[in-house]
Design brief:
The chain is 44% helix and 18% strand. Strands 1-2-3-4-5 form a 5-stranded mixed β-sheet. Helix 1 runs parallel beside helix 2. The longest helix is centred in the middle third of the chain and has 16 residues. The chain is globular, with a radius of gyration of 13 Å.
Length: 114
C-alpha cells in the first residue's frame, strides 16, 4: 500500500481494489494501532471500483482505531459505485468524506486537529 506521510500528523493511504484492498487495510490498521504512530488518516478510494462487506468492516475497524487515539479517518474520492454502497448501508452518516485527497487534507487542517 502506498502510504505517504503527508505531515507529522497525517498519513495518506491510496487503497487499491481487492484483493490488495484487504492487505492494504490490514497494514494500515497495524500501523494505526501502534501507540507511537498517532496520525490522522486519509483513505483515498479513488482507485477502488467496488467494495464488499469485508472491506466496509475493515474501514469501520480503521475508523475505530483512529477514534481510539483521538484521530480522524477521512475517506477521499469514492467513485460513484462505491459511494452508492455507503449510501445504501447508511455508512455515509458514519464516515467523514471528501471529494478528493486535497479536500480531505484541507478538511483536517481546517478542523484544527492537526
Amino acid at each position: 500500500m502506498p502510504v505517504q506521510e503527508w505531515s507529522d500528523d497525517i498519513w495518506v493511504a491510496k487503497l487499491a481494489p481487492d484483493p490488495a484492498f484487504t492487505d492494504d487495510i490490514d497494514e494500515m490498521l497495524a500501523a494505526l494501532e501502534r501507540k507511537d504512530l498517532r496520525r490522522h488518516l486519509v483513505a483515498d478510494l479513488s482507485g477502488v471500483d467496488r467494495v464488499n462487506s469485508s472491506n466496509l468492516s475493515s474501514l469501520l475497524r480503521a475508523r475505530k482505531a483512529a477514534i481510539d487515539t483521538d484521530r480522524k479517518l477521512v475517506i477521499a474520492g469514492p467513485t460513484d459505485r462505491v459511494w452508492a454502497v455507503f449510501l445504501a448501508t447508511g455508512l455515509d452518516k458514519v464516515f467523514d468524506f471528501a471529494e478528493d485527497t486535497a479536500m480531505a487534507l484541507a478538511q483536517l487542517q481546517i478542523s484544527g486537529d492537526t
